[in-house]
Amino acid sequence: MIVYKSTHILSKVQAGEVIVSVPRRFLITNKSLMAIYGPHPLSTHQLLALHLVLLCRDRESWWEPYTSLLPSHFSTMPVKYPTELQNHLPHSLTEQVAQQKHKIEEDFVAAAKFFNSKRDSLQSQEPILYEEYEWAWLCVNTRCIHLKTADATAKGGNMALAPMLDFLNHAWDAKIQSDFNIKNQCFEIKTLVPYAKGEQVFISYGPHDNLAILKEYGFVVPDNVFNYIQLDDEVWSLFDDMETPEGAIIKKQILEGAGYSGDYSIKKGDVSFRLLCALRLLALEGAGRPGFNRRVMQWNDVVMGQTERISADNERRVMIMLQSICGQVHEEAAREVEELEEIMNNNSPGMHPFAVRFLHSTWNETKAIASEMLIEIEEKLPLIT
Ligand SMILES: C[S@@+](CC[C@H](N)C(=O)[O-])C[C@H]1O[C@@H](n2cnc3c(N)ncnc32)[C@H](O)[C@@H]1O
């Protein structure tokens, strides 16, 4: 069972009011931990996770009211999915999740080594187990704040745990400001909109699409305006399918040289300019043959914003290529939606129902974006003259 904790307003709040304020002495930072552990070779994330492990082991800890409210598991995070579910992740996420797993493993080794070197001076004598460190690492990942003030001793970013503040949930459209207030020495969250008594307060964890939220925090939000579809794999295979091997190399080098290699995407009703640039170049004929350089100059004019298009024919070919890519993505997403529905209906053991539901939702969103794009292309194609 997921225990979803959230923060609600006790009495009416005006826009501009501070809604959460965590005094410096309650922030768990690299500096505050150095006072306990001394100089150390760890990144702040590695050390915060180790500290959480040790805090949770200490039943007498002053922090028990805080640690007892931390999540009991992270089964909705892709890094914790069973293999059967991981096989349904979009390609763009598979590699990132593998990297995250590798990072946790590396951090565990570094933290365990440091702990062993300090074991005599620390009360906790039992060796650190991977499972408990992974849990603590994910707690830090899903709950830390990033302080803007520079701390030269903090490696890998000036992160901190801010107890209380980390019970605030995310909404992509939350309107807040957060910063450390040097006057009163508190980390504060100010709301930019009013709240009525009893309403849940949200903050924004950043302008993330649902796949990024799923990977870093293990949930998704409805109607996320930051959703998009990454299409690099599809674009590169189109280059290989439509060009001779030499032509593909020439065109990929042109994209590289112009700074337009990769990061191709579409979102609701919008094709990224980078993707259009790549497809416009792919639609140019005769790579490496006479006259090609002149056509590349025309392409360059469009890239630089000096003209809007190369030709009607080029635009039409771009639309047809986009149609083929979106068709492919739509087909894959529809298949994944069906397969995940089957998994949901079968109540597969070892799979958290919310994990399946969230992943299903991301594929449904991909399907919807691709489907809308296909309708738009259908309408646009006959109008290109
Ligand atoms: C900083 S904590 C927020 C407090 C959290 N709800 C708790 O129970 O401790 C971040 C975690 O809260 C959950 N969360 C935050 N915003 C959410 C939302 N809009 N919908 C569902 N879960 C959310 C996710 O599990 C995420 O990893």
UniProtKB/TrEMBL annotation:
Domain SET intervals: 95-206
Protein origin, superkingdom: Eukaryota
Q: Which Gene3D superfamilies match?
A: set domain protein methyltransferase, domain 1
User: Which PANTHER family does the UniProt record give?
Assistant: SET DOMAIN-CONTAINING PROTEIN 4 (PTHR13271:SF151), UNCHARACTERIZED PUTATIVE METHYLTRANSFERASE (PTHR13271)
Record-given protein name: SET domain-containing protein
Q: Which organism is it from?
A: Phycomyces blakesleeanus
